[in-house]
Design goal:
The chain is an alpha+beta fold. Helices cover about 15% and strands about 30% of the residues.
Length: about 260
């Protein structure tokens, strides 16, 4: 991800997966909010104006939308959330994308191949890594197993990352301990991951790397909180939408 850009996705009433994009510029953290409330959040029912589908395999879920504020239309309760994820559940990671998952310097699918870029799997978590890299950025990774294999992937889930950042910045908890405590919690719960594919990038233009886009547990490891609940303490809550095309920035994460 670049700066405060965000990538979000949802499902229509007909069950079609949609990843909203702007024709010009990028969705950013401010778009998630209406006033001081985060309306685009996990399991919310949100109304947006779809313009046209713009698939670019494996990212077949892409839709251009009108640059208007989303409208909140309710949200799923706890039982509805579990039922929703179970209805979306894929047998395993390998079955999601409609193309082979390659393993060389991370896990990836070849650009231009595959039938979809997003899926849901139930997992067992075995390691949570939260550490500072040599260039001063923060790295978030999870090792987990599905029904047939193990993976170690980068996490882009904004709430997960913000929770760990708050533990370190606001509570003074050592990053290694914060990661261990997260592992302790997730290893004892029913956990589903939303997995997705990154866009191909200059260093490896033929590769779309697997990433963990969403982390959901029962009971909820965040106790009902989302990114917006951590944003103020982290100094990240946007004051107003800003959908203009920003200047180019370095990638925050390496996908492997």
């Amino acid at each position: 991800m670049h700066g405060d850009w965000v990538c979000v996705a949802g499902y229509t009433d007909a069950g079609d997966c949609v990843r909203p994009l702007l024709r010009y510029g990028h969705l950013d953290e401010a778009w998630l909010f209406v006033g001081t409330s985060q309306v685009v959040r996990p399991f919310a029912r949100v109304e947006i104006d779809l313009v046209r589908q713009v698939p670019c395999p494996p990212h077949t879920e892409d839709w251009e939308i009108q640059p208007t504020a989303p409208v909140l239309r309710g949200e799923l309760d706890v039982s509805g959330r579990r039922a929703f994820l179970k209805a979306l559940e894929d047998p395993n990671v390998e079955s999601i994308f409609g193309a082979p998952v390659q393993h060389e310097m991370g896990y990836w699918v070849e650009a231009g191949c595959g039938t979809q870029s997003l899926g849901t799997v139930r997992v067992k978590v075995s390691q949570v890594s939260y550490r500072e890299t040599d260039d001063g950025k923060w790295d978030y990774r999870i090792t987990f197993a599905d029904s047939s294999a193990s993976y170690r992937l980068s996490v882009t889930d904004l709430a997960f990352r913000s929770y760990l950042d708050q533990q370190r910045k606001c509570r003074g908890i050592d990053p290694a301990r914060a990661g261990f405590e997260m592992l302790r919690v997730l290893s004892q719960r029913e956990v589903y991951f939303r997995l997705g594919l990154s866009r191909h990038w200059p260093k490896f233009p033929d590769r779309c790397y697997l990433q963990i886009n969403g982390i959901y547990s029962f009971p909820d490891y965040l106790d009902g909180k989302c990114f917006g609940d951590f944003a103020t303490s982290l100094g990240r809550r946007p004051a107003a939408p800003a959908m203009n095309n920003p200047s180019a920035q370095d990638l925050d994460d390496l996908p492997f």
